[in-house]
Specification:
This protein is an alpha+beta fold and about 280 residues long. The chain is built from nine helices and 14 strands. The structure holds pyridoxal-5'-phosphate. It comes from Saccharothrix tamanrassetensis.
Length: about 280
């Protein structure tokens, strides 16, 4: 199901975007993926805030929030698929040499079966060097670290490398062995009743799912921390999780070929916490 920013529905199987759109030619644009359950979008405002933040980081025009909200409603009002929708908002710099009018749309899609399986079964991940160091994001803002840009080719290449190594997910690290994030997810480490995630100042995306989980956990008396995590810490933890709008809370059971402590029960607790927000 596809809706445009002028408030109309479009056929997702018909041509829509021009071949000279800079989103296509250069990945020059931003996006969000929002989870919708039973017609209700989760964390819509934080996603729209982050879309605006990513656009600002790339000197794009400010996305028309009301137009995106209307496109979201249009898709959801007309959705005929399953209970859950992955709702993508896309906003590009528009056509090469054009008048600067951005291209934007909201596209509803089913959640991939593989991801749903991994929510239940957990997954194996590998650590991969992302080649960034603390301080780089601030020192070199043109690298767009922490922007949700359409240039995800590196993230997808990392996932293919994980597959080559017999795993299905990636934990990106700095060259000095500090944990960053997954290619499409935030990492959360649990020890006792404390949840820890790395700070977005390292050049990673501030996650809406992580924020929702931390909100629920704080309410229920857990401690939450935003601080650097060394890769070695992950092996000592009670649980390691990759979380995102589409993945929800997914357990990492194996890291770089080594089994992590069984966190099945902890996973259930975190899922309950997260779901209690909605
Ligand atoms: N980090 C990256 C690089 C992502 O692409 C995503 C989501 O796609 C996340 C983290 C998790 O963000 P959220 O929980 O807002 O979906």
């Amino acid at each position: 199901m596809l809706a445009l920013l002028d408030g109309t529905l479009a056929d997702p199987d018909a041509p829509l975007v021009r071949v000279d759109d800079l989103g296509l030619l250069r990945g020059d644009g931003v996006f969000e993926t929002i989870l919708v359950v039973d017609g209700k979008p989760r964390e819509l405002d934080p996603h729209l805030d982050r879309l605006a933040r990513s656009a600002a980081m790339m000197d794009l025009p400010e996305p028309d929030r009301a137009a995106f909200e209307r496109a979201v409603s249009l898709v959801l009002d007309n959705w005929t698929g399953g209970r859950e929708v992955a709702l993508k908002l896309v906003f590009t710099r528009g056509v090469e040499g054009g008048d600067g009018t951005p291209t934007g749309f909201a596209l509803g899609m089913d959640i991939p079966a593989k991801v749903i399986g991994q929510r239940a079964d957990g997954l194996a991940a590998v650590t991969l060097d992302r080649g960034i160091e603390p301080g780089l994001a601030e020192r070199a803002p043109w690298l767009l670290l922490g922007a949700k840009s359409l240039s995800y080719a590196v993230n997808m290449a990392a996932l293919r490398e994980a597959e080559r190594r017999g795993a299905s997910e990636v934990v990106f690290t700095t060259s000095s062995g500090s944990v960053l994030e997954g290619p499409t997810s935030t990492l959360i480490m649990v020890r006792g009743r404390t949840l820890t995630t790395p700070p977005s100042t390292l050049g990673i995306l501030p996650g809406t799912t992580q924020a929702a989980l931390f909100r629920a956990a704080t309410r229920e008396g857990w401690a939450v921390r935003v601080e650097p995590i060394a890769v070695d810490d992950l092996y000592e933890a009670d649980g390691v999780f990759l979380v995102s709008s589409v993945r929800k809370i997914t357990r990492v059971h194996t890291l770089d070929g080594k089994s992590l402590p069984d966190s099945t029960e902890l996973h259930e607790e975190l899922v309950d916490l997260y779901e209690s927000e909605y």
